[in-house]
Design brief:
- Keywords: Kinase, Transferase.
- 57% of the residues lie in helices and 12% in strands.
- By secondary structure, the protein is of the alpha/beta class.
- The protein has a single domain, classed as P-loop containing nucleotide triphosphate hydrolases (Rossmann fold, 3-Layer(aba) Sandwich).
- Helix 4 (81-94) packs antiparallel against helix 5 (100-114).
- The protein is globular, with a radius of gyration of 17 Å.
Length: 204
C-alpha cells in the first residue's frame, strides 16, 4: 500500500509523515532535502539552477516510487512525483525562471516516467494559507528557505489548489491545517487518523 502526503512548502508534510508512520507502522519515505546538491544554489539563483533542481527531484522521486511498488510494504511518502511536474516546474516556467527548452525537456521526461508508475492508493493534501506557511517556514529556520518570497508561495498555493481540484488518479483526502495542531494536540491527530482509516477501509 502506498500513501502520499502533498502540500506546499511548510504545510507540515514531513512531520505528519513521521506521526502517521509511527501510528500505522508504515515505512516512511522522505523527500531528499538534506543530500540535495542543488537546493541551496537554487534558492540563491533560481533561474540558473531551476532545471537542475527539478531533474534531480524527478530522478529521486521516480526511483522512490519504483522502490515503493517493488517493496510490497505499506509505505507513506513525503511529497509525490506529481507535485514537481504539475506545480513546481510549471511555476518556474511561468515566472520566467526556466526556459521553454528546459521545460519541454522536463515535461517530456516526466510523461515518459508517469507511464511507468502507479498513483498512490491514497493522496493526502495539506491545505494551508500563506500566513500559516510563512510561520512554519520561519519556525523551522532552514537557511536556504529564508529567501522564499510570499509571491512564490502564493503562486505555488494557486497551482496546488488547481491540481487538487482536477486530481482523479486515486483516493484523495484534503486536510485544512490552518486551525489544527496535529503535533501538540492528540485530538487533532486522532481526527486525521480516523479520516484516513475511513478512506482506506471505507467505513463511511
Amino acid at each position: 500500500m502506498h500513501i502520499a502526503i502533498a502540500g506546499n512548502i511548510g504545510a507540515g508534510k514531513t512531520t505528519l509523515t513521521k506521526l502517521l508512520a509511527k501510528h500505522f507502522k508504515w515505512e516512511p519515505h522522505y523527500e531528499d532535502v538534506v543530500d540535495n546538491p542543488y537546493l541551496d544554489d537554487f534558492y540563491h539563483q533560481m533561474e540558473r539552477w531551476s532545471f537542475n533542481l527539478q531533474i534531480y527531484f524527478l530522478n529521486s522521486r521516480f526511483r522512490q516510487v519504483l522502490q515503493i511498488r517493488e517493496s510490497g510494504k505499506k509505505i507513506i511518502q513525503d511529497r509525490t512525483i506529481y507535485e514537481d511536474a504539475y506545480i513546481f516546474a510549471p511555476n518556474l516556467y511561468s515566472m520566467g525562471l526556466m526556459t521553454s527548452r528546459d521545460f519541454e525537456n522536463y515535461t517530456s521526461l516526466f510523461e515518459l516516467m508517469e507511464g511507468l508508475v502507479k498513483a498512490p492508493d491514497l493522496l493526502i493534501y495539506l491545505r494551508s494559507s500563506i500566513p500559516n506557511l510563512v510561520g512554519q517556514i520561519h519556525k523551522r529556520g532552514r537557511d536556504y528557505e529564508n529567501s522564499i518570497s510570499i509571491d512564490y508561495l502564493s503562486r505555488l498555493n494557486e497551482r496546488y489548489e488547481a491540481w487538487v481540484q482536477t486530481y482523479t488518479k486515486g483516493k484523495l483526502l484534503i486536510i485544512d491545517v490552518d486551525n489544527i495542531n496535529f503535533v501538540d494536540n492528540p485530538e487533532d491527530l486522532g481526527n486525521i487518523i480516523n479520516r484516513i482509516d475511513a478512506e482506506l477501509n471505507g467505513l463511511f
